[in-house]
């Protein structure tokens, strides 16, 4: 599954213009490390440790606050992401309605895969808005790039993230959508910190996860989450529940926002 650096560069060359050659070269190295993370279970650290590294990277976790972290779904699963039954299982139309995406917004599709939801978000933000689509697998972004071309969508910017760093701009995003992604983060603390910092003051994360409490949902336990666990993990990272929608067929839809920061002594009003 591991690809050579030159193959990776060749694949990335077909990404849209925004990705300059300079960034592509940087991506080539990052992509190589990224595929190591994706190819092996997070516990197999030796290959990463022996790779040439210039900066200290946080270790991938296998468990977080009592939850076992799932291994990221490989790009070989693209057909599964586009299965026709998804419409009954997820009711994408109803989920997207709840997001209340408006023209002109900057929306991030975090862990976009090959763009099942990116396409819809791009139509909703329109030409004055933008979708930032992030994934750690270059093959997913390559497929998304083809999809954008076929649909003539020019408002999608793609970022090849790292498992601990989505490389988002600070304070610029109205909404981050994560469908069936968060439970795969091998570095949830770094990812949540980075996403929180990327939001505008009233920005939200819309988290969609298969319901862990519901034995009727036929998904592997590691790929499901309970509400209790979600709240535990987000609250540990200075985020809280703003709103939720409980009527999707198999999934939770929870809107999370940054908790108000404690005021510094200077900002506090005198008694
Ligand atoms: C199950 S797929 C879901 C794809 C898409 N959201 C959808 O609903 O069709 C999960 C995706 O999350 C990506 N992913 C896992 N960890 C990630 C991380 N730290 N940053 C960005 N993407 C990540 C995987 O590479 C994979 O493409």
Q: What does this protein structure show overall?
A:
The protein has 10 helices and 10 strands. With 271 residues, it is α/β, with parallel strands linked by helices. It has one domain (56-258): Rossmann fold. The longest helix is centred in the first third of the chain and has 19 residues, at 21-39. The N and C termini lie far apart (63 Å). The structure holds S-adenosylmethionine (SAM). Residues 72-73, 81, 110-113, 116-117, 134-137, 140, 161, 163, 166, 179-181, 184-185, 191 line the site of S-adenosylmethionine (SAM). S-adenosylmethionine (SAM) binds next to strand 4.
Task: Summarize it.
With 271 residues, this protein is of the alpha/beta class. It is 33% helix and 21% strand. The site of S-adenosylmethionine has 23 residues, from β4.
Any key phrases for this structure?
271 residues; 33% helix; Rossmann fold; binds S-adenosylmethionine; 10 helices; globular; disordered N terminus; 8-stranded mixed sheet; alpha/beta; 10 strands; two-stranded antiparallel sheet
Helix and strand layout, with pairings?
Elements: H1 5-12, H2 21-39, H3 46-50, E1 63-64, E2 67-68, H4 78-81, H5 86-90, H6 92-99, E3 106-110, H7 118-125, E4 130-135, H8 138-150, E5 156-160, E6 173-179, H9 188-198, E7 199-211, E8 224-225, H10 227-235, E9 239-245, E10 251-258
Parallel strand pairs: 3-4, 3-6, 4-5, 6-7, 7-8
Antiparallel strand pairs: 1-2, 7-10, 9-10
Helix pairs in contact: 1-2
Bound molecules: S-adenosylmethionine.
S-adenosylmethionine binds next to strand 4.
């Amino acid at each position: 599954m591991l690809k050579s650096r030159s193959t990776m560069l060749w694949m990335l060359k077909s990404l849209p213009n925004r990705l300059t050659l300079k960034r592509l070269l940087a991506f080539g190295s990052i992509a190589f490390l990224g595929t190591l993370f994706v190819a092996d279970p997070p516990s197999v650290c030796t290959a990463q440790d022996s790779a040439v590294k210039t900066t200290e990277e946080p270790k991938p976790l296998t468990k977080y606050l009592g939850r076992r972290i799932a291994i990221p779904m490989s790009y070989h699963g693209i057909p599964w992401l586009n299965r026709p039954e998804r419409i009954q299982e997820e009711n994408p139309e109803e989920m997207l309605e709840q997001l209340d995406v408006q023209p002109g917004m900057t929306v991030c599709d975090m862990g976009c895969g090959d763009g099942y939801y990116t396409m819809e978000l791009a139509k909703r933000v329109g030409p004055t808005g933008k979708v930032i689509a992030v994934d750690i697998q270059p093959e997913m972004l390559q497929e998304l790039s083809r999809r954008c071309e076929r649909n003539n969508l020019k408002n999608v910017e793609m970022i090849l993230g790292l498992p601990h760093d989505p490389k988002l701009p600070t304070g610029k995003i109205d909404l981050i959508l994560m469908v069936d992604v968060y439970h795969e983060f091998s570095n949830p603390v770094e990812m949540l910190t980075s996403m929180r910092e990327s939001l505008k003051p009233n920005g939200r994360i819309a988290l969609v996860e298969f319901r862990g409490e519901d034995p009727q949902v036929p998904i592997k336990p590691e790929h499901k989450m309970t509400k209790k666990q979600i709240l535990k993990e987000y609250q540990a990272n200075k985020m809280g529940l703003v709103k939720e929608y409980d009527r999707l067929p198999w999934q939770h839809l929870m809107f999370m926002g940054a908790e108000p920061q404690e005021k510094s002594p200077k900002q506090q009003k005198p008694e």
